[in-house]
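FIELD: query
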Amino acid sequence: MIKLLPILLAVLYGLAMYRFSVWRTARELDANSTELADPILKHITDRMAQALEIDRIKVHIYEIEPVNGLAAPDGRIFITRGFFNKYRQGQVTSEEMASVIAHELGHVALGHSRRRMIDFSGQNAMRTALAMILGRFIPFIGPWIAGVLMSLLAARLSRSDEFEADAYASALLVKAGIGTGPQKSLFTKLEKLTGARGAAVPAWMMSHPKTQQRIAAIEANEAKWAAG
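FIELD: result
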């Protein structure tokens, strides 16, 4: 029983972290967001809502500067103020913004948003337990190895989610009459918009797939749909 105690404590820690993370995320988003009120984007999201056979798609502006979109565990969709500003400045089109919203809708519809929060807490628990175990056999280096292994696992799961959300977004954009052109064109802009230098990072270490891989996956889906 004593040998299992560290693992049990790690599991309890993971559960506690999950509950705390959900509460903290909801509180942060509630305090720093407002509903998106742009007539052009509303028109285009209404087209997507019609394709989904729902009344409306509610989008919020999250008041932070980094360029990003996100889907909260409670199902809400957010575009950051920094991303919205790029749209207002003409660097991103309304159709490209719609592709971001469609992507985040994919995360919600496919259960990624809630699962990511659970995975994050579970991975923290596993990292703690693994660090305890490896630390007994490989002092000092063991906890570092545990951290690297869990980071690789998290990146792999995240990349899988991104491909799935891309496919969902493509299908929705096609059904809404928008097409996948804006989705692909936005990918070519993202590195510049975000200031990222993804080419310097190995693909297997990135939480998002490389641009070329994402575009290739979308085009493969289009070819499959056309053949079907």
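FIELD: remark
Residues 33-113+148-227 form a domain with the Zincin-like fold (CATH 3.30.2010.10).
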